[in-house]
Amino acid sequence: MDQQEFHRLIEKYLDGRASAEEEQLLLNYFNSFQSAGEWDETKLGNKQQLEDKMLARLQNSVRQSAEGSNNQVFSMFSFKRVAAAAIFLLAAGGMFYVVSKKTADKQLVVNKSQVKHDANPGGNRATLTLADGSTYVLDSAKNGVLAKKGNVSIKKEKDGQVTYAAETNEPANENVSALNTMSTKAGGQYQLLLADGTKVWLNSESSIKYPTAFKGRERTVELTGEAYFEVAKNAAMPFMVKVNNMQVRVLGTHFNIMAYDNENAIKTTLLEGAVKLTVGNHASVLKPGQQGRVTKSGDINIVDVDAEQAVAWKNGYFEFDRSSIREIMNQLARWYDIKVTYEGKIPDDEYVGKIERNVKLSQVLHILELSHVHFKLENKNLTVTP
């Protein structure tokens, strides 16, 4: 196969025009070079340019398919059949291995018999603790008014949301500034509407502390884990999120904060408006489409990102963009409430793809097993091996 034919075949594959025979030919061709460990640029062209081109086309296909269908989020995979948008593997040596839908379907049949246990996806589960110590398990509590504090009514809505709403414009007759806490365990998520109109989406293994109603010059909340915020505008009372020793200050904007202890940085991603990150004496302002990464040492790094990927979890998806298997496992562990251990040398492969969060764990693992990793799931313990 010469370079011209090779690139023509890639174009057909990415456009969805390749036949089953051509898809298999391309996969075999990639495999032959992956086994040999060499890349002949005189025959195949510049490897980095080809990698960037294929990655850009695949990411564009994800977005276009997501906009055009509720059931498919990638042209190469159907969620109804294999529960995944696509998995695009960049091997440690830089070689591409592209998994087609037909190939995935065939291998899934083989892998399916190996599953002895499974795990259901998470759902709307959380605990609400009021300042007076009253506790409500929200997944079992009845819809309607949970409590009243001053003139603020606290309600559980039927759509997996707790709302705080003032019933009158009169000042509260008790201390509504005392902190309430909403928390989720592994496998849980919940929504919250604060008294000022700010909307919060709380991810798994997370908690947020906030007052029943905001007073004073600032609206301050405290976060652990991950949450997405749509802050109600109020120039006279800025909104502030405290995460460990970091502060995110806003007036009205949409942003996501991921601050799990087992991640290598606290990541604040801005979708709309502007936010100011402050760590000690260091401060940085984010623009839409930027992510501020605060390292363990307190450094702030600003990078351009696809902001929609950072909030994919809020919209019901896992989305990977050159994510390692360990980064993916962190997400799966939190959502499926499992413990992950590793045996042997795990390849440094990277994944690009989009997977629905409402499918069973086995369906996600089947897709990942098409690369260089294998899994053994027993009860809630998942072992990852080469």
From TrEMBL:
Signal peptide stretch: none
Keyword Iron annotated: no
GO molecular function terms noted in the UniProt entry: sigma factor antagonist activity
Domain FecR protein: 181-276
Pfam families: FecR, FecR_C
Entry keyword annotation includes Lipid metabolism: no
TM ranges: 82-99
Ranges for domain Protein FecR C-terminal: 317-384
Gene3D superfamilies from the UniProt entry: 2.60.120.1440, 3.55.50.30
Domain of life of the native organism: Bacteria
Keywords, ordered alphabetically: Membrane, Transmembrane, Transmembrane helix
Annotated protein name in UniProt: FecR family protein
Lineage of the species this protein comes from: Bacteria, Pseudomonadati, Bacteroidota, Sphingobacteriia, Sphingobacteriales
